[in-house]
Amino acid sequence: MIDKKFIQTVSFCLFVFLCIGCIENDTSSEIELSTNSMESDNVNSIPPAMHTETDSIDKATMIYAYSADDYDIATANNAFAFDMYLNLTKEENLVFSPYSIFTAMAVCYDGAEGATQEEIAYVFNYPLSKPILEKTSKDMMDTINSNDDSYDLKTANALWVRKEYPLNQQFVQNSKKYYEGNVTNIDFRGKPEESRTIINEWVASKTNDKIKYLIPENLITIDTAIIITNAVYFKGKWMNEFDTTNTEKRIFYNSSSSKDGTPVDMMYIQEYFSYGESKNAKIVELPYKGNDLCMYIVLPEENDIGEFEDSFTLSEYTRLKSSMNSQYPVQTWLPKFKIDTKTELPETLQDMGIVDAFGIRANFSEMVPEDYMLWLDDVIHQAFIDVQEKGTEAAAATAIEAVDCAVVPSEKVLEFKADHPFLFIIEDKRTGCILFMGKVEEPEY
């Protein structure tokens, strides 16, 4: 009976601070899986839709993976990225981190069982075998956090647990071992405002004080048991910087604005960038110093981003990238822009298929004792992106100055002019994982 259980809620606060373009912005051995472990009661009730192939991934292959070698976590993350993007496109200017949401929910998934686990697995393309997700998540996080001095890219997880609230020790150990999620006990009931301050200060410390108030007032209530936070911070410099003297006011044509367009600060560079195109779009790769990460700009051929994004799937993105080469210099125009997006995701995640986790049918029995009823209450995601010609003043002192490309008159020169709405994707080239994604309809700086 419900009244015989301890009823509590969990909040997710997923924070991403992303500064772009010269900004101011014990692994375990291979896991063996027995056939019996894949035929538990959890698997038997999986909806038939899970066994069908959607877009470029086979969800059944993902969900029923038998080993870490069989599970492609980057593809799982990227497929989720495009699914989430389609659910957030009502925003004119948008930035979000699929990797941040994917990773934070993986921590929660480690404590889920039954239908709750199945629903989360289907939406996020997780394997039903938790050890497989744990190993591949740790490997991915270790790679992402192992960068050099050319840029700064860090991820962090934290679990904030109400004072004296019981968590299963195996869940605590797994969170720390595989997701680096340290647990901090905090007095949510007695000192809600002080608790909010502590968590916000943690976020600020992970983002160089750029975001200070992620947790809003009144989020923490007497029912709050756990808050799970994830932070992703990126600070990088373009491998080929835009010359500030080339930035000038140019017209940007938004499909919903007047036919005359709007003047914006348009950057310009000519360089041998990797470039590709299809009948519907063009794509250019702008690498960051260190060459581990890059930004892809996807420019629809027609000035109708609404129609384009409805059909732009992971398959289309993959095919567009396969057309790329760096044989010719590319004249590139890109507007400067800043975007700050803060979104509450419960309704979106429920629309995508995670229903039980947000109500009394939630099953997080691997996270808390059986006599505690725990469900998700809120999922807050915040992201910020700053795209400009150069970095901070300190970074500029050590920056390698871009060299203009000298082109002989007879050589073919390609043109990439982002003067109407476009998509951007930040990808970790080492793993193939999409870290950040968004679109620009109205450039603001």
Automatic annotation (TrEMBL):
Gene3D superfamilies: Alpha-1-antitrypsin, domain 1, Antithrombin, subunit I, domain 2. It comes from the Archaea. InterPro entries: Serpin_CS (IPR023795), Serpin_dom (IPR023796), Serpin_fam (IPR000215), Serpin_sf (IPR036186), Serpin_sf_1 (IPR042178), Serpin_sf_2 (IPR042185). Residues 82-443 form the Serpin domain. GO terms for cellular component: extracellular space. GO terms for molecular function: serine-type endopeptidase inhibitor activity. Belongs to the serpin family. This is Serpin B. It comes from Methanolobus profundi.
